[in-house]
Amino acid sequence: MAAETLTDSLATMATQVVNVNPYKEVLMGKEIIFSFNSIFMALLGMAAIIALAWLFSTDRRHVDWKMVGKGLLIQLAIAVAVLQVIPMSWLWPMVSITAGLVVLAFGYVLLKNIKTLTLKSAMNLLTSAALLVGGVFVFFFAPEVFEFLGKCFVSVLEWTKAGSEFLFGDLVNPQSFGFIFAFQILPTIVFFSALTSLFFYLGIIQKVVWLLAWLLTKAMRLSGAESLAVSGNIFLGQTEAPLMVKAYVPAMTRSEIMLVMTAGMATMAGGVLAAYIGMLGGGDKILELEFAKHLLSASVMAAPGAVVIAKILAPQRETIDNTIEVTKEKIGKNVLDAISNGAIEGLKLAANVAAMLLVFYALIAGFNFIIAKIGDWTQLNTLIADATNGQYKGLSLQFLLGYIFAPVIWIMGVPWSDVTLVGQLLGEKLIMTEFVGYQSLAEMVQTGVFTSPRSIIMSVYILCGFANFASVGIQIGGIGGIAPNQRTLLSEFGMRALLGGTLAAMVSATMVGMFLG
Length: 517
Fold this sequence. Notes:
The protein is built from 22 helices and no strands. By secondary structure, it is an all-alpha fold. Helix 4 runs antiparallel to helix 14.
């Protein structure tokens, strides 16, 4: 009887945890609010972030501000499109206006340069015109694209659940035993790694990456190799993406290496992205879809954001090669071999994540135990609890991180009442890993500690990427293994890349916050 009573109690608690989410209706509402305060704070925040990147630049006099402007506009366009700021009824008027301006500009250039115009330059003009008009269509239909991709990720979570249930039975059901990280999140990493390996073997990822790289090269005049590396980072990890251009890495310039490292820090791999969707959604399919769209948007926005920050930190001065050639190397000899290799790599990653979280949470508990004792002896715990209205019970690592990063978070436009909570998340991401940060965010979402849903959405973007101290060593070892001659430069740029990845995510969060009132 005692065992049955315990099981019933656990089931009741799990049901309450899954069903209670005070932000669900607001997150689904997609309410866009323009206010002078939010726009002013966003502009101030972006200016501060760009200024900080410029202060740490290796060559402040040669920053290409035109490229920086283009990158920020691309980031802003993605944010506006995903949040559906502009109604669909504006589509045809904007297409007509854009097409008219393109025709006028094309005619002017044609008449002015009729004697010197070559077939190649004419084709370049036509390509630019087509991209501009096509970009308007993509801009308006981007919400549907992200909706579709979000549903794909949610479906992947369901597929993973089928395999997990075969292995673990009812342990994967939150209604029965609550949220168990090892059974509900780690299998997602394994399955998605296998799926990514399959898509890579079939050449699907290479084609998508090539298209994105071509667009980046045309829009921001990047070299072909760095465009491929940046685009690859949207789908692959920070050491896997450079493999797509490993033949070019040994000869890359300082600026190109800086961008490859920064993009690796700023974006998320598909496998962990799926895991974050499961963590934040908490078993609620509707919330999983909402968070999926924001997580996808964060990773896509991080690509041009990484370009902006990297080109400020290390401006390009050398001649670049615009050739875009994706490696023909495949993972595995056939489909089954590719899936097996991906599953094995995913298992290694899942084991690393599990070990890392176990150690970090244990260290946090140990650190908090020691400083809590100090807080008891000095009466600081009582003072902190009173000063924060119970938000923090006493002296702890979370309290320290929250207040250390609070000024940075405030200038980005996060509501004042939530700045310490979001500051804590940023600190956990930097010092530990983004996995710890997203897990803390998931717990905060479920317990309802935020005063504004805006803080939740901005936190999703702030935590995007692999920008943490451990990643510095991972990149030096991983990319250095591809190009040993670049190891010294990788070591030199390690901390700058960490800063760059963090700032790129902060720019994205600030832009999104601008439209959330």
